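Case study B.
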Amino acid sequence: MPVTILYQNRPPFVVPADADGEDLWLSLADFQAATGWDLKPEGACLGDMCVPIAPGVVSGDGRQANLPGFARWLGQPVVHDDARAVWVFGEAASTRRAALESLRAPDFTLTDLEGRRHSISEYRGRKVFLVSWASW
Amino acid sequence: VWQALHEELSPRGFTVVAVALDSGGIATTAQWIGAAKPTYPCLIDERHIVADLYGMVNVPNAVWIDEAGVIVRPAETAGSSDAFRRHLNRTTKQMSDDGLAERERVRGAYFDALRDWVAHGPRSRFALAPDEIRRRLAGVTEAHTRAAAAFRLGQYLAHQGHLGAARPYFAEARRLHPESWSYRRQTWELEEPGKAAGPEFWAAVDALGDQPYYPPPKMEGMPTTR
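Model:
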């Protein structure tokens, strides 16, 4: 059954997967495509960073991995809607806290009304007053 | 509101970057942006990712970031006050003269603080020391990150046309992060246009009692209690 995965800030990713209660099994290739994490025998790697993989995350035959199991191991929140087959994986609170406490302004990219993309890092060299508003 | 400030201070190495925490996207924000005729960037954040990244919980909230990309004031109320709670006629939407005066005084003090920072940089008394910023950062809890995940799921489902399916996740986001007025009002508004400023909103404001809706920034010239 196709499942939509919203992994952190990555765009929606639709993939065939086996959902079973709190578990969601993907092929290792789809796992990497959906999350960026490469599951290798020596650990899970994202770029240069590798972490150990919790027992049970990779299936016995080594062909599939359980994404919610992996996320929970990293302290990432998992929320899913079974009727619509949508799974959301958020950021771990510890990661978010550490990022803020570093005092480095977290980067993001958003579009303006004309569809131009802006990242906060483009404004290095200027003082930035980052302010929220809303129409509601 | 910010255009005059941007015009005044941008020649001195300053810019406003406005972010609309608005799941309505262009459809709901375009007329507001058009009316403001801003020359600073106005970005549209349908998923409220900036609120999530920076710990913003209401509008307007602001973060001050220096030339090196370092935060010098974390998310806090940006020049607004609770004057509306006592001085706004909820039927006519008119603010009394006292209310207008209080609003202008608080906004003026906040703008002066910004001017001071633009003039003096790290030597400004409004640029906080790292330890003080860390003390002021609202702690990010597991409940907050779960709320963000629930909001994203609800927002995605609503965006796909499944508003009914989104409701439980919106309720979950509000329950898990009750301090976030932006989740509260955004999700109300998605559920029913107008609800963000309707009776539920005023009931929630009244239920605050002595607690502020807009906690005043801890800075000179700001009210310490409401």
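Chain B touches chain A through 82 residues (CB under 8 Å). The remaining cases will be described in the next quarterly update.
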